[in-house]
Design goal:
The complex is a heterodimer of chains A (about 500) and B (about 450). Chain A has about 500 residues and is mainly alpha-helical. Among the domains of chain A are: about 150 residues, no CATH class; about 120 residues, no CATH class. Chain A has 20 helices and eight strands. In chain B, strand 8, helix 9 and strand 9 form a beta-alpha-beta unit. Chain B is α/β, with parallel strands linked by helices. Chain B contains 14 helices and 13 strands. The N and C termini of chain B lie far apart (about 80 Å). The chains are: A mainly alpha (about 500), B alpha/beta (about 450). Chains A and B meet through helix 1, strand 1, helix 2, helix 3 and helix 7 of A and strand 1, helix 1, strand 3, strand 4 and strand 5 of B. Strand 5 of chain A pairs antiparallel with strand 4 of chain B.
């Protein structure tokens, strides 16, 4: 083939591929080149890769079983499948270029329809970007077991099938339906404190008593308005003991039901456990969407540019890659008909690039806002540190720079129920940076955007009514449409009455 | 080095189980949607499967989430153009609320959920609780045929069924077990012998070796003769066993009156009925043939195009069609091989005196060899109020009505309009009481 490119450097290595078609040997060559840059230049640390090429139908399949290569059977996956299939066949919806699974080895799926240039892009994106993030981010390290997940799902699949055989598809379905309804309330958000040993417990108690004795001041008793300490009544004491035994309050509803429901059989509890474990496995992903995509996008962008600089891919291939890249990182403005919230690829990528810029070429403003980053030449180290130790909320709170706020022209819009109009609370000016940043961080806080519902009390020896409390934040109520159906599901799992109270956060029940 | 795996050859229908679970769960709703589709769409199209919509109430996956409206909230948006802090903006009516949640399917949406059914699924649901009447004839032997299927191997059989691969395999194992010398072994010894002879050495040792070789070669040759390359015990044949299978062929005889009184509307209704019947038979039989017979005062076998769209004028003699059907049946469809289904559509007119002849032909000839005979009468458009009293039919209807009670494989129904076709069809083939409400 004759290359008439004026830039063709003499002695430069030949391109890894020409044309659109891909083949396994080419894929392998490209993988090696990408790997060299990822490991030696960026210094990424990845799980071993397993790269699987699949067809469109298989991609559809993977879509609906929440992206996992194996999953237990449930009608809702079938529903997703028929819907996605209809959308895809009619051309309303394109399929993803790749899917990557947080497992070790890290499995990533690539569509056979991709051109070789696209395969290069998605290899860098998934097999190195996402892979590095999965392996190093603290949330994944803390909450997911990359080595065990596939085995666990295999167990789950077989267990569910076994239950279906023994107890009937409908019986299993009704438990799974109910469990799925509580999936978002079925995760642990904090680690449990380690259990104390007997000795430690005793020494803790002594310390506490000592501390109380030391800090005792009789004067406090005389401060007016202070609630008089009174002996708790018998019923109050009982209630407290009861709650302590059940470890209430408990925010992981699935866990509570699994352990304490008076009506469930052992296999039903196991099903709840399976759903809960799957929910827990995905919880870190929901908290790091922005960072995860930002990291992967930044990595692929850096790698394909290096490939081009090293003369390993042609200009045409780079153009094709950049074309898809810019489609992916497009962020429509709020008044655009295509606007549907922030594009995690766009914002994540922009922030990663901005951090690189702050490290390499800081302005005086950057030095003031990010003294630790500004002028730190080692942007690779800085980014890797960020990828390892933050989640979306803290990442935005720490690293959204005034420069980027101006560039994206961000503004914060307040919507108060008591007022008839929206109010622009802050824009991209000196007064607004901090407010915009903290509001955006809160928008990314998964915990803050989900209802905070906890089991607060139940009298197992009495009427066994389960009392849940929704801690209402900023007066935002639960959506009415789903409230009752979900409660019905909980009643089925609990077997007795279930009551949901709404209370302002930190206050007593209002209803 | 990473593992590269080509998964494209893996089975594709990983979600088939989930899909079936979904269909089962929504079967009732889908059934209604399918019935509606059949009633409203052209039958040829509807039966192709395709998109159906069902209400999404039954398939919601509710989860607790925060309301879109109410309370205080604040959100960040990109792309500010002219706002400054403190600007007030009108809230859109209905309260968009600025919630991060857009209407996802997990909420209690009231939109219809639409998706595509495959042709098989569609027909499955369409004919869900229908049954072919008299699938098995009075004598069971008639309804079945003997078919030979492959079933393993046997030690005896005819030469055409010889299985070479198996035969060679057993032969090889026998030869190995009995240590049959190969041609190579003998050739090697013979070469050695030839070399010794050429040298013609007088040395004793070599001469003795020559004699040994001679004897050995003789022994090996004898062994090769005694242990044959293929012994009769090696030979294997493909085995076939006869199996009784139900007859898988059906012929559907469509008879239609095309005289002047049958207009576009009547023909269209008749066509819908025939198409449904054809689809239904196709699900039950491997092979379904259709014979089209149209008649005025005389009958002719025609092709489909001609049958539905051809124009012909004349009187109406229904017996001519029956005679034609009998003639074709005798010529081409032996009862032993074919299940015969007849469907007749007419507006109920017949020339005076012919009806008696029809009844005779039916009860003496046609009904005995038919699995089922369905007659639909296309009623006049204005006959809506007559639905409650179907007995007030025309000439042919009144005649057939006498026959119906005594013939279990004969059914008749009146059709008034497009929407009637499918219910009537269902009633004719409904599982429990397939005799329908024939008076």
């Amino acid at each position: 083939m004759i290359r008439s490119s004026p830039e063709a450097r003499a002695g430069a290595p030949a391109h890894l591929f020409e044309g659109a078609d891909w083949s396994f040997p080419t894929l392998r060559r490209v993988y090696e080149a990408v790997q060299t840059i990822a490991l030696n230049d960026l210094g990424l640390d990845v799980f071993p890769n397993q790269i699987e090429v699949i067809s469109a139908e298989q991609m559809l399949d993977a879509y609906c079983s929440v992206g996992m290569p194996l999953m237990y059977s449930h009608w809702s996956y079938g529903k997703r499948f028929v819907r996605d299939e209809a959308l895809y066949r009619k051309g309303y919806q394109a399929l993803a270029y790749e899917i990557v699974i947080n497992a070790s080895p890290c499995i990533s799926y690539y569509m056979e329809e991709n051109t070789m240039a696209m395969q290069t892009l998605v290899l860098a994106h998934a097999a190195f970007g996402h892979n590095h993030f999965f392996k190093n981010n603290y949330l994944f390290q803390q909450w997911t077991d990359a080595e065990g997940i596939l085995d666990y799902l295999d167990f789950a699949k077989r267990y569910v099938a076994e239950c279906e055989e023994r107890h009937g598809v409908e019986a299993v379905e009704s438990v799974l339906d109910a469990a799925h309804a509580l999936m978002n309330q079925g995760v642990f958000r904090y680690r449990r404190a380690a259990k104390l040993k007997m000795g430690e417990y005793e020494s803790r108690r002594r310390e506490r008593l000592k501390n109380e004795a030391e800090s005792y001041c009789d004067l406090w008793r005389t401060v007016p308005g202070a609630a008089h300490a009174r002996e708790p009544t018998l019923s109050e004491q009982e209630a407290r003991e009861r709650k302590q035994r059940l470890r209430l309050p408990e925010e992981n509803l699935l866990y509570f039901l699994e352990k304490n429901s008076p009506v469930l059989e052992a296999w039903q509890r196991e099903l709840l456990r399976i759903v809960r474990n799957v929910a827990q496995y995905f919880y870190p992903q929901r908290q790091t969407k922005l960072m995860n995509e930002g990291c992967a996008t930044f990595v692929h962008y850096h790698i394909v540019n290096r490939l081009y600089d090293d003369g390993l891919i042609s200009e045409g291939a780079l153009m094709e890659i950049l074309h898809s890249h810019s489609n992916v990182v497009h962020q429509p403005a709020f008044d655009d008909p295509h606007f549907s919230g922030f594009n995690p690829y766009a914002l994540g990528f922009a922030m990663m690039c901005d951090i690189q810029r702050i490290c390499v070429a800081p302005t005086p403003e950057d030095r003031e806002w990010f003294p630790d980053l500004a002028g730190r030449d080692d942007w690779r180290g800085a980014l890797k540190d960020i990828w390892a130790n933050y989640r979306d909320e803290s990442f935005v709170r720490q690293f959204l720079s005034p420069h980027l706020i101006r560039k994206l022209k961000l503004f914060a819009l307040g919507d108060k129920a008591a007022e008839s109009k929206y109010r622009v609370e802050a824009i991209h000016d000196a007064d607004g940076y901090r407010r915009v940043r903290s509001v955006l961080a809160e928008n990314y806080d998964v915990g803050a955007n989900e209802p905070d519902i906890q089991v607060v009390d139940v009298d197992l020896l009495g009427d066994r009514e389960l009392i849940l409390r929704h801690a209402v934040r900023d007066g935002v109520p639960l959506a009415e449409t789903s409230r009752e159906p979900v409660l019905r599901h909980i009643r089925r799992l609990w077997g007795y009455g279930v009551r949901l109270e709404e209370a302002a956060a930190g206050a007593e029940a209002v209803r | 080095m990473p593992q590269f795996i080509d998964r494209r050859l893996n089975p594709r229908d990983k979600n088939l189980g989930n899909r079936q679970r979904f269909l089962r769960r929504t079967r009732e709703q889908i059934k209604q949607a399918v019935d509606k589709a059949v009633r409203e769409r052209a039958i040829g199209e509807a039966a192709k499967g395709g998109s159906v919509s069902i209400p999404s109430d039954g398939i919601g996956e509710p989860q607790f989430h925060l309301s879109d409206s109410g309370g205080d909230r604040e959100r960040v948006f990109p792309g500010n153009k002219e706002f400054v802090s403190g600007d007030q903006l009108d809230k859109p009516p209905g309260g968009r609320g600025g919630s991060p949640r857009d209407g996802s399917d997990s909420g209690g949406g009231e939109d219809a959920f639409s998706f595509a059914l495959s042709e098989d699924e569609f027909l499955d649901i369409l004919f869900d609780d229908l049954e072919l009447p008299d699938l098995v004839k009075a004598s069971l032997k008639d309804a079945t045929v003997c078919e030979y299927r492959r079933a393993g191997y046997s030690n005896d059989g005819t030469t055409p069924n010889l299985n070479v691969l198996r035969t060679m395999r057993t032969s090889l194992s026998r030869r190995l077990a009995l240590r049959r010398p190969s041609a190579d072994d003998i050739r090697r010894l013979e070469e050695e012998l030839a070399a010794l002879r050429e040298r013609n050495s007088p040395r004793f040792a070599e001469r003795r070796r020559t004699a040994e070789l001679f004897a050995e070669i003789e022994r090996l040759k004898r062994l090769r003769r005694v242990i044959p390359f293929i012994d009769p015990i090696d030979v294997r044949y493909n085995r076939f066993t006869p199996r009784i299978v139900p007859r898988a062929k059906a012929v559907m005889v469509c008879m239609m009156d095309v005289s002047g009184s049958m207009g576009e509307r009547e023909k269209d209704l008749a066509k819908r009925f025939f198409i449904l019947l054809h689809l239904f038979l196709k699900r039950k039989y491997e092979r379904v043939e259709i014979v089209f017979i149209r008649h005025t005062h005389e009958a002719a076998e025609v092709d489909e195009q001609e049958f539905f769209y051809g124009r012909e004028t004349g009187g109406t003699v229904v017996s001519s069609a029956l005679k034609k059907a009998i003639e074709i049946r005798e010529k081409r469809y032996p009862i032993a091989d074919w299940n015969i289904y007849c469907a007749q559509a007419s507006d109920g007119d017949n020339s005076g005196g012919d009806t008696a002849g029809c009844l005779e032909l039916l009860s003496d000839v046609v009904l005995p060899w038919s699995q089922y005979y369905a007659y639909i009468e296309i009623a006049d458009r204005g006959d809506d109020e007559d639905r409650a009293a179907p007995t007030r039919g025309k000439e042919l209807w009144r005649g057939y009505a006498e026959l119906a009670p005594s013939a279990p494989n004969f059914a008749m129904k009146q059709v008034h309009g497009r929407a009637d076709i499918y219910p009537v069809f269902r009633e004719l083939f409904a599982k429990a009481s397939r005799k329908g409400a024939a008076p």
